[in-house]
Design brief:
Lysozyme-like; 212 residues; alpha/beta; 24% helix; 5-stranded antiparallel beta sheet
């Protein structure tokens, strides 16, 4: 099965497509793919955005990737929104949010790991590493890596983003001008996504990007 066919099968452009009021219809040259996390369970980040600011928010990412690998396109990748909240970045970037609860806390009363809004995470999905004063995180799924690789291949071809990536999740002062794949936490140290469970080597191997 070719990559183009894979993309057609995986991308749902209808279910969570947003209206023109929720993004800017100005076409721009794209040089970055910014990876972020939903920090909510399942597709609850989408439901949150649907209602945010009385339905008027422009904080939508371009794409969301579910834990089962389904890709939702929210708007045309040549357009832009306010995902990062910095025009210089938003205009030239394509944002991809992976469904992931992010940092977790152990609730002794519930006897479960929960995220910042008390959604429960299954114990078998918990990854442990101390980073930015947090110790527990939700893992990413194999289906997400596979779908992300397919989507990136599509965006390299269709939008001209360079086949390259930083390959780490810490802040980098040169990230604003970087061309390729990067994360929200590369751009701003206040972000915790992508979380430390993300395996950049696994993604880069799928994309044939050299691993430093």
């Amino acid at each position: 099965m070719g990559k183009d066919l894979d993309v057609v099968l995986l991308i749902d452009k209808e279910k969570y497509s947003i209206g023109t009021i929720n993004h800017y219809q100005s076409k721009n040259k794209k040089t970055q793919i910014i990876l972020g996390g939903s920090l909510r369970k399942d597709s609850n980040h989408i439901l949150h955005l649907i209602n945010k600011d009385f339905g008027l928010t422009k904080k939508w990412p371009t794409y969301s990737i579910c834990r089962n690998g389904i890709i939702y396109q929210h708007y045309d990748p040549t357009f832009y929104g306010d995902y990062m909240g910095i025009k210089e970045i938003d205009k030239k970037s394509i944002s991809v949010v992976l469904e992931n609860m992010g940092m977790l806390f152990y609730d002794t009363n519930k006897e479960h790991f929960v995220n910042w809004i008390n959604e429960i995470c299954d114990d078998e999905l918990v990854f442990e590493k101390l980073w930015k004063n947090f110790r527990y995180w939700e893992n990413y799924t194999d289906q997400q890596y596979e779908s992300l690789a397919i989507l990136c291949e599509f965006l390299f071809k269709e939008c001209g983003v360079e086949r390259d990536g930083l390959g780490f999740n810490v802040h980098d002062q040169d990230s604003i001008g970087y061309k390729g794949i990067l994360t929200r936490s590369n751009i701003d140290s206040d972000y915790t996504d992508l979380n430390p469970s993300f395996n950049f080597q696994k993604l880069f191997k799928l994309l044939n990007i050299p691993i430093n």
